[in-house]
Amino acid sequence: MEITNASFINEQEISNILQKYSKPSYEQVTDVLAKAREMKGLDLQEVAVLTGISDPLQLHELFQTANHIKDTIYGKRLVLFAPLYISNLCANECVYCAFRAKNKAIVRRSLNQTEVRHETEALIKQGHKRVLLVAGESYPKQGFQYVLDSIRSVYEARYNDSEIRRVNVNVAPLSVDEFKLLKAEKIGTYQIFQETYHHETYKKVHVGGKKMNYDWRATSLHRAMEAGIDDVGIGVLFGLFDYRFELLAMMQHIHELERVFGVGPHTISVPRMEPATGSDIASHPPFAVSDLEFRKIVAILRLAVPYTGIIMSTRETAQMRRETFALGVSQISAGSRTNPGGYEEEVEDDTSGQFSLGDHRPLDEVIRDVAQMGYIPSFCTGCYRLGRTGQDFMDLAKPGAIKAHCGPNALSSFMEYLNNYASPETFSIGVKLIEDTIAEMEGLPRDRARKLVDRVKQGQKDVFC
């Protein structure tokens, strides 16, 4: 039976908790940070305590704790991907989005399957191995089949015997039967954002289309997981309402998924409102989040759900992205375009894109920057293809066993990128980083990394453990 009621979002409970912990004591903050270091997650009250931090010294301790947890669980890995917008058609009226149905200021376009393959080939040429397929919430005459066909086109695309190895999907909420069709196409993660969990705000900013139905959207991940998709991603659009409320509501959503399915979301995205063509509110967020508050959000999430990936998009500037790597971000997009056809045409078109980008650098430049900071750019898709998803992934992640796979796989996938796509400068920086990293590893992970990297150096592709 499909779940259609989002009663698990309890606004009164959130309000009471936030009021109680609006000015937490020094001892309360210290106790929560100490618990967070155990890496077992936090409850709503503890998250509320962290949102109330204002003392600069305790803010510093929050950031240091987030860095410790990030480094302990993920090491220096950063997973890279690219969004692939196949259509900007939409039937909804979301006042913050350029894709909204009545917006005449953008050029509408939906890619045919040949164009989808060409866009994918353009991404493969850059070195990408995983994409997030995105579509506005309306499709051409094929309906939902258009999405299924597009996933197949992405997987079928080839360039120089290389391909996309994982397709994640961000599309409109579906029924359980439709989610089963999506799973049959071998997707990775199904991602959907509630945008805001605050009911009154949700109603104000969603004024037309099926997206007006708060409950149908909030329960979409229940249906996805019921259909067998065990890797799901959530997020809110920070700036629509008080970020403290949104964090606690998101925790209620996470706890509900854990209660029903035994495992929460695989990823959390943290988009901040950015200007969008034809939207006044997008340029003037009603609850604008400062840079300091944004860093605080990332750090709190890392403490609250330590084993969940945190995604940072190219909405943010290069500098902000750099600052959040140490606070908990584990996945980033790079070289992004939000307009359909933008990769093949090498055009970033604000007249048909969803929002303004903050980081315009190409993939190779992002990778070089990341590597110079000491982080390992990872294109690994091994866990998905070996079935290490959902509960199986968490069973390995929580005792730390997943690092024996993720570390070596990150290095081998990075070496593959360097061999086939990197500029000479990036190649030199990357090879040194790989060798330095292997030298610091111990035991089985080191042995695995050495063998995998050597196989790639000899010309092999797609090696993982």
UniProtKB/TrEMBL annotation:
Cofactor: [4Fe-4S] cluster; [2Fe-2S] cluster
UniProt cross-references to SMART domains, sorted A to Z: BATS, Elp3
Domain Radical SAM core, residue spans: 76-307
GO MF terms held by the record: 4 iron, 4 sulfur cluster binding; catalytic activity; metal ion binding
Residues annotated as transmembrane: none
Protein species of origin: Gaoshiqia sediminis
Annotated keywords: 4Fe-4S, Iron, Iron-sulfur, Metal-binding, S-adenosyl-L-methionine
Positions of region (Disordered): 336-358
Annotated InterPro entries: Aldolase_TIM (IPR013785), BATS_dom (IPR010722), Elp3/MiaA/NifB-like_rSAM (IPR006638), FeFe-hyd_mat_HydG (IPR024007), rSAM (IPR007197), rSAM_sf (IPR058240), ThiH/NoCL/HydG-like (IPR034428)
The protein's name: [FeFe] hydrogenase H-cluster radical SAM maturase HydG
GO biological process: sulfur compound biosynthetic process; water-soluble vitamin biosynthetic process
NCBIfam families: rSAM_HydG
Entry-linked PROSITE patterns: RADICAL_SAM (PS51918)
SUPFAM superfamilies, per the entry: Radical SAM enzymes
Domain of life: Bacteria
